[in-house]
Amino acid sequence: MANIEYSIGELHNLFELELRNSMSLNESSVLHDVAVENKDNIMENGNPVFNKYYKNMKPKALLEHLNLASQSSVPNDYHWDIPELEEFDVIIDDGHIEAKSELTNKKWNNIWNPKVLSPYSTRSNLEKYQPYFKPTGKISDFAVAHSTGIVGLKYPAKMSRGTSIAYSDYYNDKDLNCVTVLIDVGKNCDVTIDEKFFNKDGLKIFKIVYLVRDYASLTIERKFDIDGKDCGANIIESNVIQFPKSKFEYKVTGEGSKYIQDLMYIDVYEGCETNVRGSFDLYGDYINNSVVDVHHIGKDSTSRVDIRSIIDDTAHSSFLGSIIVDKEAEGTDAELVNKNLLVSNTASAVTEPQLDIHTKEIACSHGCTVSNIDKQQLYFLESRGIETHIAEETLKQCFLKM
Amino acid sequence: MLVTQEFNIKIDGYYPILNDMHLEYGPGVHIIMGPNGVGKSTFAHALMGSPTLESSGAVELNGKDLLAMDTYERARAGLFVSFQNPTPIEGLSNFQFMRQALNSRQSTVKLGDSLSKFKELANELGLSDTWDKKQLNVEASGGEKKKNELIQLDMLDPQVAILDEPDSGLDIDAIKVLIQKLNDFSQQEGKVLIIISHYAQLITSLDPDTVTVFNKDGYAKQYDNTDIAYDILENGFDG
User: Fold this and answer.
1) Residue A60 lies in a domain
2) Domain range spanning residue A81?
3) Same domain, yes or no, for A262 and A291?
4) Do A322 and A197 belong together in one domain?
5) Between chains, do A374 and B87 touch, taking CB under 8 Å as contact?
6) Which domains does chain B have, with CATH numbers?
7) Do A382 and B71 touch (CB under 8 A)?
8) Does A9 fall in a domain?
9) Residue of A279, A337, A372, A382 to mutate when probing chain B, most B C-beta within 10 A
10) Which residues in B lie closer than 8 A to residue A379 (C-beta atoms)?
11) Is the pLDDT score of B238 beyond 80?
12) Beta bridge partners of B44
């Protein structure tokens, strides 16, 4: 049989033709109800990729990215395509999760480690998490409608643990991958997760939900595949729900890639701390699109967002940041910063801050800029004998460090 | 030796500031004076190669064509110009900056030795113990910025130093250290010290060899007889 080549722009048609129905739509799936809801939403409201929400995110580049659905009767050689296998505690792809014990025969002591959640284990109780995967009208709806099943980790209360997760390729094809993940951080936990996203030739759409329970602390350090920047495209939607008195810290670094959207939606309840810090050094024709949306629902919470990008050559950066403060969220202290340093005439950056405030007695600010290298600073460094290209590099590094 | 001939300076390519300057600065101390806004600082930064200024004519530093060089090459050739209000750079510490400037000159001074010298100079100038770690010119007072420039002068050890009102913002104790540092510098063999200042104590203490007066018409005249400086200090530029 012939292979089917298609872009995300055609995906809803394939749904309609029932050519891309996934396991999550089966009645036995732990995602069944919500997967159907997501599919119906797409069919009713149209393909979300054409939503104006994505207008600054180079949607054309995304639409030009082609996936290859193999119709061959020869099964694929399924294995983890990841060179640094030993470096990670957990590896995840669509419907697949493997912890160190299975990967390397090094025993992962279950007493001191999070519980691995798999759609193939009835003890995972994944059905109860379905409300967190409701349709949003965004591209991630495809992830839920098209995923094989939720995978994840559950940290029992009071656990203090560092975990490294690789989001890698198990299927070894060039087709679309939709990955749904649930990370449940129990009450009073102190958890750090190092994440690395490896690229594959096809598009990967992720929907990752992080539950940070009462008094828990979660730090995520996210990195992208530097060596695989020329292949693949990733859309990563992360939804963080911060329960009262919890702390969430997100640190992300990258150099962009052929196409990437990193979308972070954070719901903040009473007495929480939220810190989001990103630094990107883009060059060539790479693209990076960041979205950070902090929704203050409870009172007396603090949030800080600071995303910085250096954009060189013909690279493109977009940032869409918003702070929403509900009527009940008195005492909110929120700051949103996005700074972009353009170092070539052909680079482009778009920054769009939004404040949506529904109460008084709060402190809320934003500062979003697109600028070039400061000629006076450059002259000052050169006047002390520092060569022009070194002075420029120094100023770029300072910009990211500020 | 720094020599200018038919040296003209324009801002942004069209607005003439200084014209036809024939000036010669050999080893020793030289004072530049002139009313506000006549282009004394502009002169210094045109020599350093400021990107906002356009220069024509000829300038030689030890026989080499200064105007043909990039700014960093002029610095490496031995020229140092202090800034009236040096620009802040967030994310770069005072010492990181100094170390980078030294490295750019292929300095063989070890990191530990240059840090010790930096701290010693900062201490001598009454700066805080953590001055090396503070961000370059960020949230620094006018006096602290001037002291920082003095540290840079001492550590980079140029042949020709042009200092723009180095006394401004300094307290009495710091001015004593400044005068001592400048005398130490100018007494070294072959060093050329050019000071833009109207501060009597500084001029008297440095005992200049020449005085250059910039006038409102955009011309400059250099005097070997330094009594002109004292006349100006007593009677002003129109006296």
Assistant:
1) yes
2) 1-268
3) no
4) no
5) yes
6) 2-235 (3.40.50.300)
7) yes
8) yes
9) A382
10) 49-51, 71
11) no
12) none
Residue with tokens 């900062």: B122
Q: Are residues A116 and A195 in the same domain?
A: yes
What residues in A contact B70, CB-CB < 8 Å? Answer: 382, 388
Same domain for A231 and A144: yes
pLDDT digits 0-9 by tens, B178-222 = 999 999 999 999 999 999 998 889 999 999 999 999 998 899 999
pLDDT in tens, B86-135: 999 999 999 999 999 999 887 788 888 899 999 999 999 999 999 999 99
Asked if A71 is an interface residue toward chain B (Cβ–Cβ < 8 A), one would say no
Nearest to A385 among B50, B51, B105 (CB): B105
The domain total for chain A is: 2
Q: Where are the beta strands (DSSP E) in A18-144?
A: 67-69, 90-93, 96-99, 115-117
Which residue would you say has higher pLDDT here, A35 or A241? A241
Please check whether residue A373 touches B, CB under 8 A.
no
Cα–Cα nearest to A120, from A36, A28, A38? A28
Phi first, then psi: give them for residue A162, nearest 5 degrees.
-110, 135
CA distance A381 to chain B (A): 8
User: Can you read off the two tokens belonging to residue A75?
Assistant: 């099964």
- pLDDT value of position A104: 52
**Complex confidence, ipTM:** 0.96
Residues of B in contact with A381 (CB under 8 A): 89, 97, 100-101
Compute how many other C-beta atoms are within 10 angstroms of the C-beta atom of residue A264.
26
The per-residue pLDDT for A173 is 79
Distance of CA B119 to the CA centre of its chain: 22
A389 touches B at CB < 8 Å: no
At B5, give phi and psi (nearest 5°).
Answer: -135, 130
b/e sequence A52-65, b meaning 16+ C-beta within 10 Å: ebbebbbbeebeeb
Q: Residue B224 burial by CB count (10 A; 0-12/13-18/19+): exposed, middle or buried?
A: exposed
What residues of B are in contact with residue A401 (Cβ under 8 Å)? Answer: 90-91
Please tell me whether residues A264 and A306 are part of one structural domain: no
Tell whether A390 is covered by a domain.
no
C-beta of residue A192 within 8 angstroms of C-beta of residue A162: yes
Quickly list DSSP for A159-184: -EEEEEEEE--SS-SSS-EEEEEEEE
Question: Is the CB of B87 inside 8 Å of chain A's CB atoms?
Answer: yes
Q: What are the structure tokens assigned to B8, written together?
A: 């003209």
Q: Does B105 touch chain A (CB under 8 A)?
A: yes
> Residue B13 pLDDT > 70, yes or no?
no
CA distance A311 to A317: 7
Residue contacts between A and B (CB atoms, under 8 Å): 71
Assigned domain for A387 exists: no
Contact flag A391-B83 (C-beta cutoff 8 Å): no
| Rounded (5°) CA angle A216-A222-A228 | 160
Contact A244, A250 (CB under 8 A): no
0.90 surpassed by pTM? no
Contacts of A18 (CB under 8 A, 6+ apart): none
Q: Which of B49, B71, B90 sits opposite A402 (nearest CB)?
A: B90
